Amino acid sequence: MFDSVRGIYCAIRRPNLEDLDTITRWLDDPYLNSTVFDSSTFVNGAQEQAMTWLEQNATVYGADNLLGLVCSVKSGKPIGMVWFNNIDWKSRTADLRYLVGEAEYRTSVFGPEIALLSLQMAFNVMNLHKIFGYVLSGNENSMSLAEFGGIKEGVLKNYVRVGDGWNDYHLYAMFSDDFRAFLQKHKDGVLRRHFKKGLF
Q1: pTM (2 decimals)?
Q2: Domains within the chain, CATH numbers bracketed
Q3: Which helix (H) or strand (E) holds 111?
Q4: Which of 51, 41, 57 is nearest to 19 (CA)?
Q5: Residues 117-150 pLDDT 10s
Q6: Which of 101, 136, 182, 194 gets the most CB atoms within 10 Å of its CB?
Q7: Which residues contact 130 (CB under 8 A, 6 or more apart)?
Q8: Sign of CA dihedral 86, 87, 90, 92
Q9: What is the DSSP pairing of strand 93-100 with strand 130-136?
């Protein structure tokens, strides 16, 4: 399933047990805890959560959750992950999340391509109809990226516990038709290198 999802800078592959320590480190990362998620919600800790994800990921088709590891095309090094939660195969919807785990790859190149590959996987590989995702208030880079191609559907006020306080989740969505239109709109612009290489 993951082999067909490759960009200019990143590729998505299936994670394995050798990736456990890397994923655990990302889940414990203070920066990611303030911008992507709050690891205090992991009842048994980050390593146990990572192991649970790997076990759930053993069944690719028909599972409710799917995890992919994002690697640098140049080095092969794991740099982030993408995961689909609450997959409804009948309605063809899912909750999409992704992160850039390695700090040196949090640039204007890798984050957008991970988002793009995630959408490609959702619509062209998994054949989903709609994906939605949540962005924490304060994560301006992710909000800008989500608004570049997605539709803002609402805000969940004081929805997630972060440290000693609460934060809002901004809900974004995209439909498969919107993704196809997005590709056509940008094929001669920001996506021209992807089209030239035959990635779309």
Answers
A1: 0.85
A2: 10-192 (3.40.630.30)
A3: helix 110-120
A4: 51
A5: 999 999 999 999 999 988 888 888 888 888 888 8
A6: 101
A7: 92, 93, 173, 174, 175, 176
A8: positive
A9: parallel
